[in-house]
Amino acid sequence: MASLKLAAMRAILAPIRRVRRGLTPALGVMSNISATWRKILDSQAFDHAVWEFKSRQLAASSLILHRATPSSSETSTFDSISAIPSAQLLLALAIELMAKALYLKQAAGPREAIYSHDVLQLIGSSLSSEQAELLEFSQTFVVWAGRYPTPKWTSEKYKISADVPSHFVDGMEHFNALDFPNHASHDRYLQLGGLFNHLRSCWEAA
């Protein structure tokens, strides 16, 4: 009896093993699952409401991280300080998705244009000069400054994104710490939060 059960089990498992090894096509049910999933994604790919919803998810996660960071560096631990750039990166991603949601809802151009981090080109006309500068900072934070130590360090066209603007007064160079592309702080986070809220208001009104 035991040998019969073992033989039956081997017969059941054999086709699964062959599929895993790539020896036979996957069962038809797998193809049906993929086809159904494709249809769902077809309906969501350029749906502005889906992009807005995903944006709010990222913003909510960002806020949880930000609330966990202390307001004073005197009482901060390495772990809590490390959460600030991560919270800011999530918020920058939320801003990118909200900008794309706004662009899709406005139907201002080809839908495929959303497949780029350069969202300033998509919705720049909806922003003040200060907001445009903040969005450009947010873009850079998503592309590299919030994820890597440096931008792609293979040519000047990439290295230039790490440059910090400055000016000279009486022979002394002046610069703003907020202009460092990888700057992360509570103040910067609040500024980005204001930009996010503005974009969401624009999306709601569009």
Q: What quaternary form is this?
A: single chain
Helix residue percentage: 55-70%
- Distance linking N and C termini: 71 Å
Q: Count of helical segments?
A: 8
What does this structure look like?
The chain is mostly helical and about 210 residues long. The chain has two domains: about 1-45, no CATH class; about 50-205. It contains eight helices and two strands; from the N terminus they run αααααααββα. The protein has helices at about 1-20, 30-45, 50-65, 80-105, 120-125, 130-145, 155-160, 185-205, and strands spanning about 165-170, 170-175. A two-stranded antiparallel sheet has the order 1-2. A hairpin with a 2-residue loop joins strand 1 and strand 2. Helix 4 (about 80-105) packs parallel to helix 8. The radius of gyration is 24 Å and the shape is globular. The N and C termini lie far apart (about 70 Å). The mean pLDDT is about 85.
Summary, kept brief:
This protein is mostly helical and 206 residues long. It contains eight helices and two strands, in the order αααααααββα.
Q: What's the helix and strand layout?
A:
Blueprint: H1 2-20, H2 28-44, H3 48-67, H4 78-106, H5 120-123, H6 129-145, H7 156-159, E1 166-169, E2 172-175, H8 186-205
Antiparallel strand pairs: 1-2
